[in-house]
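F.,

This is the one I mentioned.
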């Protein structure tokens, strides 16, 4: 999901003009900033939906890890006693 950062370009242009920019310079700067904000927001900023999706993924991975731990412990509980008996460490 992409999101855009909105800003008041007219006010931005007026502020630049009040600071000494010509009309053309102020408009060019406003266009450049709008383009830069649009590009950065669509490629590198995470939305709330992106974060929520990652949290769900992490939660699923945690559940998978817990299941794997249980499986390993179960297998060790079954295999280890037999192996220890086979090599003579347990009677």
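My design for it:
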């Amino acid at each position: 999901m992409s999101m855009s950062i909105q800003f008041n370009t007219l006010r931005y242009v007026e502020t630049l003009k009040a600071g000494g920019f010509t009309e053309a310079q102020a408009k060019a700067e406003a266009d450049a900033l709008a383009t830069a904000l649009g590009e950065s927001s669509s490629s590198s900023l995470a939305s709330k939906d992106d974060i929520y999706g990652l949290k769900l993924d992490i939660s699923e991975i945690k559940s998978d890890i817990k299941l794997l731990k249980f499986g390993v412990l179960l297998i060790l509980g079954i295999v280890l006693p037999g192996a220890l008996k086979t090599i003579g460490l347990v009677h």
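The longest helix spans residues 48-86.

Talk soon.
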